[in-house]
Amino acid sequence: MTIAAEVISVGTELLLGDILNSNAQYLAQELAALGISHHYQTTVGDNPDRLQGVIQHAASRANLLIFTGGLGPTPDDLTTETIAAAFNTGLIEHPHIVEDITQKFAKRGRAMAANNLKQALQPIGADILPNRVGTAPGMIWQPNPDLLILTFPGVPSEMKTMWRETAVPLLQSKGWSTDTIVSRTLYFWGIAESSLAEKVAPYFDSPNPTVAPYANKGGVKLRISAKAKTEADAIALITPIEQQLRAIGGPDCYGTTPTLAEVVGKLLLSKKQTLSVAESCTGGGLGQLLTETPGSSTYFWGGIIAYDNSVKVRLLGVDSVVLEREGAVSEAVALQMASGVRDRLGTDWGISITGIAGPGGGTDAKPVGLVYIGIAGPEGAIAFSTQYGDRGRFWVRQGSANTALDQLRRKLQYGESTSG
Ligand code: ATP
Ligand code: MG
Predict the structure, then answer these.
(1) Is the Cβ–Cβ distance between 371 and 281 less than 8 Å?
(2) Would you state the pLDDT for residue 418?
(3) Does residue 72 line the site of ligand 1, with CB under 6 A?
(4) How far is CA 397 from each of CA 94, 150, 160, 393, 418, rounded to the nearest angstrom?
């Protein structure tokens, strides 16, 4: 049997243009990657008659119908009941879904409305497509031997999780998927997207695996994707390219872990070393990045938000004469803040950040976006400046926190600073 899929997006807000149909885009890319033919995409509003018409039409020209949207508890969520009606099938309540939904509400401490139980109803004969991340499950249903129906909630994150965890293995086990796609992402910090793109330009012409650059929160990432018959074959295509790209990236490449804080955490753990931070312009942002990683308490001991100069002097031991002479945003103060927090908290490493986040407060000598970062460690302390320009307060703060982490990463990995 040749498989032809049709994606059916349900929701009046799609027709009104309130939201972009990103679910259809995602599913289209996934189907292409799996080698499943996909001939039609249909978008229809929350209207039972028109939806029923779409279902009948789709069933006449496709044998894999993939629905997103309209599984929720509200009266305009009518995908499930309309599908059942289109095949003259009744609905049946699944007691374990009732239990699952009840438990999810209890865990979140929220009261459950009676209409939430509507989500436990599925066509007679349909299997449940579990929803681990939300409340509305989907269905896996073959109303007749030549037709498979899958339904997903509209919420993109839920749809994607359910697609990856259940639908893809199902389609593969049925032998409907002829190909598999595997992606690996390499992350870079301290190199501009354009410079990296120039260095790895020849790889962009590679058809399989493909290599594509993306901006990544102030850093850059390269995604390597291979298509092959098996996962092992795809990985075999990726591995040599990954090694070559890592070599080209050198110290700017920090591997396949997306966040620098996690990479630094792993390095500190492996060396059994500890870290503390002294933050001025990031106001705790560095501590936040570090503590997003579970288990960070092992290596991250704490920090001092030294916003006012008096705090820099009293809690970090910054010399008030130096502070007066050089200004709070200076190499000398960054050095003293880093050494100060390291000494006072008794950690192996201390990081400091002091800068002008803007939009106000800049001068000709010290413009907005100027940030000094200090790193104190077992072999002494260094401080250096970076310049974010007037890209905005958010970027100055986010960028400097990550640059500070990146400098510590380089020291931990290579033993010396590679910054200028
Ligand atoms: P819920 O249980 O949240 O009501 P649902 O299955 O009923 O989920 P909808 O009510 O249709 O889904 O949509 C929920 C939200 O998901 C929408 O507000 C919208 O933000 C998003 N969404 C729905 N359909 C799409 C789509 N095709 N592409 C992208 N986002 C979508
Ligand atoms: Mg809804």
Answers:
(1) yes
(2) 43
(3) yes
(4) 50, 44, 32, 6, 21
Rounded to whole angstroms, the Cα distance separating 50 from 170 reads 29
- What would the mean pLDDT of 311-316 be, rounded to a whole number? 98
- pLDDT tens by residue, 19-40: 999 999 999 989 988 889 999 9
Looking at every residue in the chain, the average pLDDT score rounds to 94
Q: Is the CB of 136 under 6 A from ligand 1?
A: yes
Phi-psi region of 94 (alpha: psi -120 to 50; beta: other; left: phi over 0): beta
Q: Let me know if 209 is exposed, middle or buried by CB neighbors in 10 A (0-12, 13-18, 19+).
A: buried
Element (H, E) at 349: strand 349-355
> Which residues are bridge partners to 380 per DSSP?
377
| Confidence label for 419 from pLDDT (cuts 50, 70 and 90) | very low
Please name which of 169, 111, 91, 104 lies closest in space to residue 136, comparing C-alpha atoms. 104
Q: Per-residue pLDDT averaged across 40-59, rounded?
A: 98
With a 6 A CB cut-off, is 116 part of the ligand 1 pocket? no
At 346 the three-state DSSP class reads coil
Report which DSSP code applies to 72. S
| pTM more than 0.85 | no
Q: What is the DSSP string of 222-244?
A: EEEEEEESSHHHHHHHHHHHHHH
Instruction: Please state, as a whole number, how many other Cβ atoms lie within 10 Å of the Cβ of residue 313.
Output: 17
Q: Which atom of ligand 1 is the closest one to the Cα of 24?
A: 27
What whole-number distance in Å separates Cα of residue 266 and Cα of residue 277?
17
- The pLDDT of residue 108 is 87
Q: What element of type H or E holds 67?
A: strand 64-68
Name the pLDDT band for 416 (thresholds 50, 70, 90).
low
DSSP 325-337: HH-SSSHHHHHHH
Residue 260 corresponds to which tokens in the numbers above?
């620098």
For residue 178, the one-letter residue type is T
**Closest residue to atom 4 of ligand 1, CA basis:** 72
pLDDT digits (tens, 9 = 90+) for 52-84: 999 999 999 999 999 999 999 998 999 999 999
- Quote the ligand 1 centre to 246 CA distance (angstroms): 39
